[in-house]
Amino acid sequence: MSRPTKNYKEDLFERLHDQGHAATYLNEAVDEDPKAFLIALKDVTDARGEGVAAIAKKTHLNRESLYHTSSERGNPRLNNLYLTLEALGLHLSITAAVPT
Fold first, then answer.
1. What's the confidence (pLDDT) of residue 53?
2. Phi, psi of 98 (to 5 degrees)
3. Is the CA virtual torsion 83, 17, 24, 70 positive or negative?
4. Which of 23, 37, 45, 49 pairs as cysteine with 29 (C-beta 3.0–4.6 A)?
5. Three-state SS letters, 17-61
6. Can you tell me the distance from the alpha carbon of 82 to that of 12, in angstroms, rounded to the nearest whole number?
7. How far is it between the farthest Cα atoms of the chain?
8. Cα 81 to chain center, whole Å?
9. Is residue 1 scored above 60 in pLDDT?
10. Integer distance in angstroms from the first to the last C-alpha of the chain?
11. Quick one: pLDDT at residue 72?
């Protein structure tokens, strides 16, 4: 008898409801590449069921601007990024780079 399986996105979205997992996911993405971070931020937003419209309402930012910000080609302003993370219950922090 085969076991039902979740697809990757369903499993990821389920795990992203946990604040700690969402923070780790975003930190790993930002370490990889800015585009990966924007995709990860959209994943966290979608996983929470917030959607861009809900984030726009919470942050008082323009919805179209947020769609562009969270796209792969986006280039968010730091303030918009800060407000988006805050609306998701997360915050931005800086750590020292590990010497290579």
1. 83
2. -80, 125
3. negative
4. 37
5. CCHHHHHHHHHHHHHHCHHHHHHHHHHHHHHCCCHHHHHHHHHCC
6. 23
7. 52
8. 10
9. no
10. 50
11. 65
User: Which residues neighbour 10 within 8 Å (Cβ) at sequence distance 6 or greater?
Assistant: none
- Domain residue ranges of the chain, discontinuous segments joined by +: 8-87
Tokens (6 digits) for 93: 């922090």
Q: Which amino acid is at 69?
A: T
The CA dihedral of 93, 97, 98, 100, to the nearest 10 degrees, is 150
Q: Are 61 and 80 in contact (CB under 8 A)?
A: yes
Angle of helix 19-32 versus helix 34-47 axis, rounded to 10: 160
Residue 48 amino acid letter: R
Per DSSP, the three-state class of 12 is helix
